[in-house]
Structures are given as C-alpha cells and as structure tokens.
Design brief:
- The chain is an all-alpha fold.
- Helix content is 58%, strand content 0%.
- The protein has eleven helices and no strands.
- The radius of gyration is 23 Å and the shape is flat.
- The termini are far apart.
Length: 228
C-alpha cells in the first residue's frame, strides 16, 4: 500500500475558509491580545492559511474590523421599541450600551477613525432610532444629532471606564492597583470628599447608567435649547 507524500495536515490546494471562520478567528485574537495587535498576517497564522488567501476575503485590517462590528451588531437582540419617543430613545441607547458592553473593544474601535460611519444600515438602527426619536420629540435635525452625540459620549465613556477597571482587576496580581482614598487629604480643603471618603468605593461601584441615561435624555429632549 503506497503512502502519500503530502505533509500531514496539508493538501495540494489551500483549504477553503469561510467568512464565519475568519471572523471567529479574528474575535479570538482580539479577545486574547486586543484589537490593536490584530493584523492580517497574525490572523492568517491563526487560521493556518497564507495571508494572500486571506486577502480574497478582507481588503485590510480596517475592512476586517468593519466586518466584525457589523457581524457583532447584527447578532445583538433588538428590543421592542415603545411608541413614546422618549422611551424609544432610552430603549435604543440601552440596547447600544448592552451590545457594546458585551464586547468593549468595539467601543474603542468606534471612537477612532470614523468607524461609526462605516457600519451598515442594520448596525446603525440605534443611531437612526435615537435621532428619529429626538426629532419626534420636537428637536430639530441638528439638535437631534447633538442629542445622539451626547448620548454616544456618555455611553461609550461608561463602557470604557468599566472595561478598563475590570482589566486592571484581572491583572491585579502583576500590576499594583491604586485605590481611591480621599481620607489622606486635608478636610479643610476638600470637605465634601472627606465627608464621604469611606463611602466612595461602594458608591462609585454602583451601576448608575440607566438613571444617568434617563436624566440625560430628559435634558436633551425637553429642556430649552439656547436660541430657541
């Protein structure tokens, strides 16, 4: 019986790689090393194919990130949207928050290089809903865009702060953690902080995104705007 001279694990032709396999491998690399270290060459190595083969599926790293973001947003569950515009804006913003919180690296990418504008229509439904709800609540299109921008900054900021804090906790054994301690300050100079110094860690750990979002939306949709 003759034996094949083909090396173990290889065939005469490159194996076919699906889009789903590519995105899954890219997610593994990002989860392990961070999105900044993702490269086409490293992804090809993760998949066991040549970089040239991978370029048949993705043009470059930017294209790969956009595909990942669209895929992640497309898999997120969409809530039933209320008829009331205020509640609709809150529901869409909450869905946006939860989708990004499930994979915080996406929030980091979307804050750089205009990636938000590269997403497809299905991934932008939260933006459309927030802008549309603000207009229905009586804001001008320009004010509605400002409302979305402020909600976006608030949401992304909350996600990134918590994600980085969680990363520090996970690395606590190798990196010293600096706890906030206001008790070391002079109460005469920072009286309010000194008064709640012992409560600060517990208070700062509370998830206040929902309450803050409602207060922000109320201010953006129903307060008097300058020049109105």
């Amino acid at each position: 019986m003759s034996r094949s001279t083909t090396p173990h694990g290889r065939t005469g032709r490159p194996r076919l790689t699906s889009r789903a396999e590519i995105l899954e491998a890219a997610r593994r690399l990002i989860d392990r090393d961070g999105w900044e270290k993702l490269t086409i060459r490293r992804l090809a190595g993760e998949l066991g194919i040549g970089a040239t083969t991978l370029y048949h599926h993705v043009r470059n790293k930017g294209d790969l990130l956009v595909q990942l973001l669209n895929d992640h947003a497309g898999q997120a569950e969409r809530p039933t949207l209320p008829r009331d515009p205020r509640e609709r804006v809150i529901a869409a913003a909450t869905a946006m928050h939860d989708t990004l919180a499930a994979w915080p690296w996406a929030a980091e990418v979307l804050t750089t290089d205009g990636f938000l504008g590269l997403l497809d229509e299905s991934a932008l439904w939260t933006v459309e809903t927030i802008v549309g709800g603000a207009i229905e609540a009586g804001r001008t299109p320009e004010q509605a865009v400002v409302a979305f921008r402020d909600i976006w900054y608030y949401t992304v900021g909350e996600i990134l702060v918590r994600a980085h804090s969680g990363r520090e906790q996970a690395q606590a054994e190798s990196i010293p953690r600096h706890e906030i301690d206001f008790t070391r300050f002079d109460p005469a100079r920072v009286p309010h902080l000194a008064a709640i110094a012992d409560q600060w860690p517990a208070l700062a750990a509370h998830d206040t995104y929902p309450q803050g979002l409602r207060a922000l939306v109320d201010g953006l949709l129903f307060s008097e705007c300058p020049g109105s």
